Amino acid sequence: MRQNKLLLTTLRESPGDAEAMSHQLMLRAGFIRQLAAGVYTYLPLGRRVLRKVEQIVREEMDLAHAQEILMPTLQPTELWKESGRYDVYGPELMRLYDRHDREFALGPTHEEVITTLVHNEINSYRKLPITLYQIQTKFRDERRPRYGLLRGREFLMKDAYSFDVDWNGLDQSYWSMFKAYQRIFARCGINFRAVEADAGAIGGEGETHEFMALADIGEDTIAACTSCDYAANLEKAEVGIRSEKNEENIKLDQIAKLYTPNIRTIDELVESLQILPSEIMKTVMFIVDNQVVAVVVRGDHEINEIKVLNYLGAKNITIANSEALEGISSIAVGFIGPYGLDLPVLVDHSVVQMNSGIAGANEFDYHYQNLNPQRDINLEHVGDFRNVTEQDSCPRCSEGIINLHSGIEIGHVFKLGTKYSDKLGAKFLDSSGIAQTMIMGCYGIGVSRVLSAIVEQNHDENGIHWPLSLAPFHVHLLPISVKDDLQIQVANELYERLISHGIEVLMDDRDERAGVKFKDSDLIGIPYRIIIGKDAGEGNIEFVNRRSQAKEMMHIQDVVEHVSVLLKNSH
């Protein structure tokens, strides 16, 4: 491609609303342009990278015996109501009406559509197992689109769905996809980690893993053990329990009231009583599926609402406001504690391990001191209800501790079981002619999100350095002066030779200063740069590695073979 004809405008400054480095660099380098909040156009360079990600995905999906299809973006909302997700998805589901006043949704995902398709097409065990996939645009009405392609309202996704006759079959399909994902992200040059995760709105009846690209800008937190392979998303990560309670022989003082006027928060208690947050029992009231529930954790810990939901087998959780608590006489907002509460009280393991602590007295302007969990709190509901923290014990091994990392979710695999096949009637006849429900799995990759993840991990102060597998071009060919006939002649000849050997080349044939060309080349991030300058008459060029900035002089006749070897060794 000749750069003079390429639709490419680079920017010297980053747009003010671009927070993430990947967002800034892809805008500045002319890969994407914003049309509306969370909605982007892929310019030629961006589209080339996107197609390469798609190609890697297709090759690995085909290798895993998945078959590509393409399903409609426009989905009748009757399907979503039938599956029970219409209300669960809430305002993120983009809804619209046709001229006959029939409601549709722009697909954020395709479990309902694929299950309906397979229900209509497959009725015998002889046609199972089967895995179908597509690469398609998805739509979610994000409340706050941000970070460019990392959190958009319109994005490209690969979603695959497996259908098996039993759970053993699903297990094989699941791990086949898991390994395919490992190969995909490795080929894309991403530093990633597979972590245990919560199924979220997709739901399911079995294990699920997220694939996380490690990056400081990541909105997800990963808890990983320092000694074993355990890793999980923060919302799923378990807390390692060494002992259920403190067995030290300590004489316990009797519970007593403290007068604490207008002291309501953990920080205020710490400052007023000169104690540590870990000496406080924090009680938070929630509305869980229309029931008021109290959750108690240590003052230095944060409640994990997903764990609370999963423990109670509930669907919805919100923090209870003052109105919701008005009818409960034993509660004084701002001074709530677990002692004497006449409602379900979920107590975290870390609280049970305390000998004594400070907690609200359920009376305005008072707290209890010397509150002992074993003696003073109803321990009917004890469990893991908090987020893990740095230095927590590993839940899988006895040696490791937990470290926290930031990550970008780029893939997610689920064991759905019969969540959708039951509701949408996806059944098959077994070898005895008896109808059975198909066992499903679901596997997604944020194809467009991969671009941002790559840039977050591969950039410097001057721009992007793309991995060779995804770069828009392999080589950036720069004649220093387009007014120098010899340089242009050499550049044109080398350009044709490189292309004839299957090497993708962008030739900067613009009439620009050398400094402008070098800055743009660094910004765009093509892996190898060939500079044709004053030594062209002697048959020499300068070969530059974008990532390392290593430079070497090379004879023009050796360039094609040199690049060919680099490409071969990269596979």
Q: How does this structure look, described?
A:
The chain has 571 residues and is of the alpha+beta class. The chain has three domains: 16-238 and 404-455, BirA Bifunctional Protein, domain 2; 256-383, YbaK/aminoacyl-tRNA synthetase-associated domain (YbaK protein, Alpha-Beta Complex), CATH 3.90.960; 473-570, Anticodon-binding domain (Rossmann fold, 3-Layer(aba) Sandwich), CATH 3.40.50. It is built from 16 helices and 31 strands. The strands form eight sheets. Strands 3, 7, 8, 9, 10, 11, 12, 21 and 24 form a nine-stranded mixed beta sheet that branches. Strands 16-14-15-17-20 form a five-stranded mixed beta sheet. Helix 1 packs across helix 13, helix 2 packs antiparallel against helix 6 and helix 2 (44-63) packs across helix 13 (447-457). The two termini are 23 Å apart. InterPro entries: aa-tRNA-synt_IIb, aa-tRNA-synth_II, aa-tRNA-synth_II/BPL/LPL, Anticodon-bd, Anticodon-bd_dom_sf, Pro-tRNA-ligase_IIa, Pro-tRNA-synth_IIa_bac-type, Pro-tRNA-Synthase_IIa_type1. This is Proline--tRNA ligase. Belongs to the class-II aminoacyl-tRNA synthetase family. ProS type 1 subfamily.
